[in-house]
Q: What sequence folds into this?
């Protein structure tokens, strides 16, 4: 303070000659200015000192003596009830369905809209190449043929397996021969096949030299050859092809010949092939409603339907008569359980005949046990059958590309009954860290659940809260009845299974203690177990109900959360 | 990141200015005032003179002796000004609710909660005003030429009013059927720097019997704004239904603007910002304003004053954001994150950058009368001034209020050696009734004043809701 006053005094000293003081006359310097100057300065400082004392006293009184201010501001804590709407939602059957794949909405029988569970069309193709193999070997043995300067012999030999061919292309075909010359003359042989053409489109000829007293054996392959019957070919010899043997020797002699032909492998053929039965074949196909496997064996379906179509697929003809013999359709579960489709007689096999290349059979509850098969909800569907091709031995046009195709689809409308089935689900609880802190501040919570069920489905929901390691933390309990599951009663239905009115469920109460809220703040997953049952499905037979698309389950959940503000304070 | 040393030095300089500079330039009807005026219940319209009249009535510049120079400096003594408080909570309440119990937080029972909530019956107001004078100087040449003044000062004001609905919600939760109306919510804050140039002179052409003289004055102001936040409209309300569903409507409009120096980054803006604070930051907004005033001296004892101050606008152009919300509030699913986010957005609004935003300056009408007497004219020893003021703000910008404020005050100096005693009462405005007290002295060229506008604190200290004191000084040659 002394220093400040000294500095101030020096400052005033410099400006003093110009000062104009309040209440004082303007200073004028004269001989006694030094004395006067010191008097004024002392007067000024005495005033300042007085004021500073008063100010200091005032501030001291103001803050230190009078106003009581907390040393530390400590935020208070208190309990507050927050009334929170948690859920207000209408769940439709769309929400209940586990998947929307293969589920369609169609008009129902009562001016309503119901679900159609419609699988994808399963296709199963079976080629008929086996039918185009002529496996028989035809023999012409012990022939004695002349040889001279001008002789030639026309010979007909049967196609294998009784085939009658107007034209054809062969992947392969065997013509083999064995000649013996018992004479002393050299014989020049030329074998011509006037109706066969090589892959290059050239006539087919074989030339052989038969030396005296010697034999020759050989084989010719009709690899990629075509055959086209000549107009001069006798109609009664369509089952044979012809070849011409020209034998030249200087003097007329004879020689011995053995001829063989077959097997043939046909690329396509116009003509007639004898009926042939292909052995049982088929394969498994996915059953596209297996997402509902948990209801397998517990579901009673009112109106399932299976379409089984068979088509003959050909690039060169309009069709081939085929009998699908001993057709079997079997539902197979991954565990090995099977369930066969039975016709109305109880037979597990049936036949279908393709007329003009197509056949169509519909299986309903009237002609089969299709309802039960669909209720079985297999994982795969196995379709097996034998194939009888050209059973009436008709003329035909057929190619190795031809096939017989099965087209199968199954469908069921949502008229059904479900006996008690348990559906499990684990869902992630997406709670942010800040929310977790808020939840852990909770002292208690009362959760009120109101629901109105227009879906004919009873549901017992058991909800367990688990931590990040799936360790159970606690299970929700219905305080209104003490149960560890929440019951939502189904809508009532009439005798036809139609919903009469929604059921307003009793209010369910969940009370969470502070400890449970603390546990909830550590929750990461919810493991839910829903036991469901359609209305009066416990009866025998169960009531078949209509699951209409308009059915809704309305739920309103609200809670009073009591929590402590500034709980850590 | 800004260099720590630079930040520290800047803060030190800034704090030094706050603690050591003179607060006197009035802004709005409620802003901080010099200790001289504060001591008289913030009555100043007719009695302020010289540099103290800047921002109040420029015509009062002539109310000093001819050839008088006035200015303010940090010297000779440190200056400290403080005024803060609420309109709802006394120090007793503060101690009770925020003082803790044995060092731990007080647990509020139902009665405590009711008592706490009742404090906010008329809504809660938090405010703080500060003014930092950078330089002020005035010179009265005399009747022929007039008086001139220049002032540069910073003003920092913050005001927040929140409705009782907020405390009620926090204390008692959202009770079904209870409507929560946030309509009284209002927040305003800014930091602006005002450069003003004033001129006043006597109007000798006006002659009216009884009146000795008339004066007129005008101040031109260049305003640099460094930050602004303010709500223009909050009409949001909601009600909790029987099933705890929340419904209502949202209507919010707010703006903000910050100097680049703050490095403020808005949530909706991905641009990285860097803080670079200094004593002279680049302005975020600027504006031109003016004060205009007249005064008159009636006889030897009466002075009358009329002025309109802070006429003009500030146009904010830097980092300007608009936050708005409107529409119906329907909330029924807390567990639905999308709905929750939507509700939050509905209430708090969505921000977006806008090019500019204009705000009014805290325009105020100021009327005042002062009566001067001394022992030569009456039986009262020494000299006495009695002052009556009426301040009417035209808006609710920071430091201003449309609630009129009336004040009456006086200054008495019984003896030459005795300090000036000042006291006064202020009614209305933001804080209602206040009893002020101040003292001052003139020591040579130096005038030194001390005051509080909450003198009643001394008598019922813990029942008061605000505290304030101010020291101010001016040099006069």
A:
């Amino acid at each position: 303070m002394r220093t400040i006053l000294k500095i101030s005094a020096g400052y005033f000293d410099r400006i003093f000659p110009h000062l104009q003081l309040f209440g004082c006359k303007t200073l004028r310097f004269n001989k006694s200015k030094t004395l006067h100057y010191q008097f004024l300065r002392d007067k000024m400082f005495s005033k300042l000192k007085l004021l500073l004392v008063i100010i200091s006293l005032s501030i001291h009184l103001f803050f230190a003596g009078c106003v009581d201010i907390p040393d530390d501001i400590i935020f208070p804590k208190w309990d507050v009830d927050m009334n929170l709407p948690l859920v207000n939602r209408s769940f439709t059957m769309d929400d209940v369905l586990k998947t929307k794949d293969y589920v369609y909405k169609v008009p129902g029988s009562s001016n309503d809209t119901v679900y159609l569970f419609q699988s994808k069309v399963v296709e199963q193709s079976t080629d008929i190449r086996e039918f185009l193999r002529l496996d028989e070997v035809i023999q012409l043995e012990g022939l004695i043929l002349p040889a001279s300067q001008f002789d030639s012999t026309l010979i007909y030999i049967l196609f294998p397996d009784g085939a009658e061919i107007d034209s054809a292309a062969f992947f392969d075909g065997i013509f083999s021969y064995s000649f013996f010359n018992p004479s002393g003359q050299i014989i020049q042989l030329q074998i011509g096949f006037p109706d066969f053409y090589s892959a290059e489109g050239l006539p087919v000829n074989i030339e052989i030299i038969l030396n005296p007293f010697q034999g020759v054996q050989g084989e010719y392959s009709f690899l990629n050859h075509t055959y086209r019957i000549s107009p001069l070919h006798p109609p009664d010899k369509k089952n044979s092809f012809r070849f011409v043997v020209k034998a030249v020797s200087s003097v007329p002699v004879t020689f011995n010949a053995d001829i063989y032909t077959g097997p043939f492998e046909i690329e396509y053929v116009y003509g007639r092939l004898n009926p042939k039965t292909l052995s049982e074949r088929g394969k498994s196909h996915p059953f596209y409603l297996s997402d509902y496997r948990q209801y397998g064996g517990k579901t009673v379906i009112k109106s399932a339907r299976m379409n089984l179509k068979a088509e003959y697929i050909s690039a060169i003809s309009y069709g081939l008569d085929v009998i699908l013999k001993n057709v079997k359709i079997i539902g197979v579960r991954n565990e090995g359980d099977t369930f066969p489709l039975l016709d109305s007689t109880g037979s597990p096999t049936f036949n279908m005949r393709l007329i003009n290349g197509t056949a169509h059979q519909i299986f309903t509850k009237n002609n089969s046990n299709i309802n039960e098969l669909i209720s079985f909800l297999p994982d795969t569907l196995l379709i097996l059958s034998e194939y009888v091709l050209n059973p009436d031995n008709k003329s035909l046009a057929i190619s190795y590309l031809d096939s017989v195709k099965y087209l199968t689809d199954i469908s069921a409308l949502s008229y059904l009954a479900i006996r008690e089935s348990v559906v499990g689900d684990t869902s992630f609880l997406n709670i942010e860290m800040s929310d977790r802190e808020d939840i852990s501040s909770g002292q208690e919570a009362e959760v009120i659940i109101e629901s109105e069920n227009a879906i004919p489905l009873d549901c017992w929901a058991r909800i367990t809260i688990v931590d990040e390691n799936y360790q159970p933390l606690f299970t929700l309990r219905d305080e209104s009845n003490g149960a560890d599951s929440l019951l939502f009663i189904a809508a009532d239905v009439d005798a036809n299974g139609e919903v009469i009115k929604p059921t307003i469920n009793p209010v369910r109460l969940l009370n969470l203690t502070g400890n449970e809220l603390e546990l909830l703040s550590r929750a990461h997953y919810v493991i839910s177990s829903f036991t469901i049952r359609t209305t009066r499905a416990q009866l025998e037979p169960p009531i078949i109900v209509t699951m209409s698309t308009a059915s809704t389950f309305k739920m309103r959940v609200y809670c009073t959360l009591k929590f402590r503000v500034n709980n850590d304070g | 990141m800004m260099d720590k040393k630079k930040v520290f030095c800047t803060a030190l300089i800034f704090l030094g200015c706050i603690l050591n500079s003179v607060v006197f330039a009035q802004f709005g009807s409620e802003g901080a005032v010099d200790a001289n005026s504060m001591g008289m219940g913030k009555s100043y319209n007719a009695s302020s003179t010289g540099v103290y009249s800047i921002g109040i009535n420029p015509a009062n510049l002539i109310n000093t002796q001819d050839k008088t120079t006035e200015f303010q400096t940090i010297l000779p003594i440190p200056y400290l000004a403080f005024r803060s408080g609420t309109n709802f909570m006394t120090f007793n309440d503060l101690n009770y609710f925020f003082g803790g119990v044995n060092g731990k937080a007080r647990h509020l029972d139902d009665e405590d909660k009711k008592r706490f909530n009742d404090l906010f019956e008329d809504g809660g107001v938090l405010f703080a005003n500060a003014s930092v004078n950078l330089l002020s100087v005035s010179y009265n040449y005399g009747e022929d030429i007039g008086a001139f003044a220049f002032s540069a000062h910073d003003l920092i004001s913050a005001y927040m009013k929140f409705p009782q609905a907020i405390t009620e919600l926090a204390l008692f939760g959202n009770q079904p059927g209870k409507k929560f109306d946030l309509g009284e919510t209002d927040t305003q804050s800014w930091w602006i720097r005002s450069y003003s140039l004033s001129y006043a002179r006597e109007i000798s052409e006006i002659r009216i019997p009884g009146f000795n003289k008339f004066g007129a004055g005008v101040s031109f102001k260049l305003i640099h704004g460094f930050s602004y936040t303010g709500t223009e409209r909050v009409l949001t309300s909601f009600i909790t239904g029987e099933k705890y569903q929340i419904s209502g409507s949202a209507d919010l409009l707010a703006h903000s603007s910050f100097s680049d120096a703050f490095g403020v980054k808005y949530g909706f803006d991905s641009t990285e910002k860097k803080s670079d604070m200094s004593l002279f930051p680049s302005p975020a907004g600027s504006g031109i304003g003016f004060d205009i005033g007249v005064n008159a001296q009636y006889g030897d004892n009466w002075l009358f004053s009329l002025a309109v101050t802070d006429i003009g606008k500030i146009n904010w152009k830097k980092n300007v954001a608009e936050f708005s919300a409107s529409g119906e509030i329907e909330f029924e699913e807390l567990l639905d994150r999308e709905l929750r986010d939507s509700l939050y957005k509905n209430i708090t609004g969505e921000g977006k950058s806008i090019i500019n935003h204009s705000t009014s300056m805290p325009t105020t009408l100021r009327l005042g009368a002062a009566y001067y007497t001394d022992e030569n004219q009456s039986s009262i020893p020494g000299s006495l001034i009695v002052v009556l003021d009426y301040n009417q703000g035209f808006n609710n910008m920071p430091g201003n209020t449309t609630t009129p404020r009336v004040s009456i005050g006086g200054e008495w100096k019984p003896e030459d050696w005795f300090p000036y005693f000042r006291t006064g009462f202020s009614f209305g405005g933001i804080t209602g009734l206040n009893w002020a007290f101040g003292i001052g002295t003139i020591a040579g060229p130096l005038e030194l004043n001390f005051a509080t506008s909450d003198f009643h604190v001394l008598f019922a200290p813990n029942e008061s809701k605000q505290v304030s004191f101010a020291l101010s000084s001016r040099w006069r040659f």
